[in-house]
Request: fold
Amino acid sequence: LKGKVVLLEPAPLEDCRVLVTFMEGATLVNLAARRMNEAQARDLRRRTGAITEDWDDPTMDVYDEI
Reply:
């Protein structure tokens, strides 16, 4: 998007601090190809957020071979 930061969700109305993280190799997901709209994607992200920390934990890699 030519150097612009685009929010995926609405910003809170209160004053807050912001952290922007650039992730190498990150790609945008084609929601239409997955028959999903932005509201559904936000809901999915909210519902699965609790498992993300465990999923990304390197010690969980042992379960990949099971």
Observations:
- The chain has one helix and no strands.
- Helices lie at 38-56.
